[in-house]
Design a protein that fits this description.
Layout lengths: L6 H8 L3 H9 L18 H15 L4 H13 L4 H45 L1
Length: 126
């Protein structure tokens, strides 16, 4: 990683498309990505680390505007750590609520599966 990673390498590592990587840079989620002598982007370790967090935020439903807000707070310096913490805690609460709802929904599906298994078992023993 001495020279940095290419768009393709970062796409493979993160699961994001090259288009998404360029878009993340365009909307300000990433700092400007340095380029090599041929003008190709070369992602640094810190870019990949930020992408790891951003993909987790997005996968858990954080809106891009909130992700942009978080990155802006990070760029602004350490004086706003409380605001960053509050943003992440609010998102955590949202994620926990979603998990709870999914567990409830899964329980309904599991009950239905159990019922069908019971019907099939009864049919096979008849």
């Amino acid at each position: 990683m001495a020279d940095g990673l290419t768009v393709g390498e970062v796409a493979d590592k993160t699961g994001l498309t090259a288009y998404t990587l360029r878009w993340y840079e365009q909307v300000g989620l990433l700092d400007p990505i340095p380029r090599d002598h041929a003008g190709r982007r070369r992602y640094r370790l810190r870019d990949v680390e930020r992408l790891d967090l951003l993909t987790k935020m997005r996968a858990t439903g954080m809106p891009v505007r909130e992700m942009v807000r978080y990155v802006a707070l990070v760029r602004a310096g350490t004086h706003n750590r409380r605001e960053r913490l509050e943003l992440l805690e609010q998102h955590r609460t949202t994620v926990l609520r979603q998990i709870s709802e999914l567990q409830r929904d899964l329980a309904v599906i599991d009950r239905k599966i159990t019922r069908y298994r019971g019907h099939l078992h009864a049919e096979q023993t008849d």
